[in-house]
## 1
Amino acid sequence: MTILTDNRPQDGESLAQYLRRVRTSLKMSQGEMATKAGLHIQSLGKIEAGKTTRLNGKTKAGLSRALGIPEDYLDALCRGVPVTSVQHLKICPQCWSPGSSAEPIWLDPRSKYCFICGTSLIDRCPSCQELIPSLKFRFCGYCGQPYKKISNYDSHIRLGSI
Ligand SMILES: [Zn+2]
Ligand SMILES: [Zn+2]
């Protein structure tokens, strides 16, 4: 499934506004989306009209499937908290360069491996297991280890080319 990069909820966006925006961007009618999500069109209508923000597990799973969005986004919107607070930073220790932002697809809760090189993504320091607090830091603030891994593979290539 393709994950759109602009499908994150925006600041101050309500659940209703968000669902309408993503649905429109996918050029789906309310009826089509209800069918895809396994919902009654009336139920979807109520959610999109902002009459309810209580979604049960089945509804959340259906909407996330129909729109190709993580359920975490819906959770955050229902609870009225920013999406970032339910999400950890995740980076590829090979491809990430310190100080740069993470690729949106690394942050997707379903991503476990880097889409570029296939390395397991990390959300914590490999040596002390503390979560990565910010991508501004090159080194772990707790134990001083660099987050970016200098792999043996890379150094072999470098040595080989000298
Ligand atoms: Zn990578
Ligand atoms: Zn550490």
## 2
Amino acid sequence: MVQLTVNGKPVTVSAAPETPLLWVLRCELGLTGTKFGCGIGVCGACTVLVGKEIRQACREPVKTLAAARVTTIEGLSGPIADALRRAWTDCDVVQCGYCQSAQLIAAAALLTRRRAPSDAEIDAAMKDIACRCGTFPRIRRAIHMAAAALR
Ligand code: FES
Ligand code: FES
């Protein structure tokens, strides 16, 4: 049994302590917005927030997250999340959608620490999340749009 906080709610999970957070989220808690891509920390599809930092859920044994605050796409809320969702829609960012939970999580982490990120800062913040559909130019535009709306 491991206790952690997911999307603001305390939960106790029965998964073995070494189980990657990704599978606890998806299989035990039913939070399937966090995606499996590679399972080895390469694609970024499983990105979640732990506190204010992004982490790859496929590489985080759940036992390391006791007392941590995990936020998935299902729990991403507040003014930054609202601004990002609006901008994502206005810029028509999504193609197949598979990477987009992770992209939004990473974008929210970026705008939490930088309210006017440069192109280079956006590139650096998003570089570990692959998009096979090539939506990155629209992601960058949407992040600038969301940042402007928040200022
Ligand atoms: S599934 Fe975690 S980085 Fe690819
Ligand atoms: S929208 Fe298809 S992988 Fe990113």
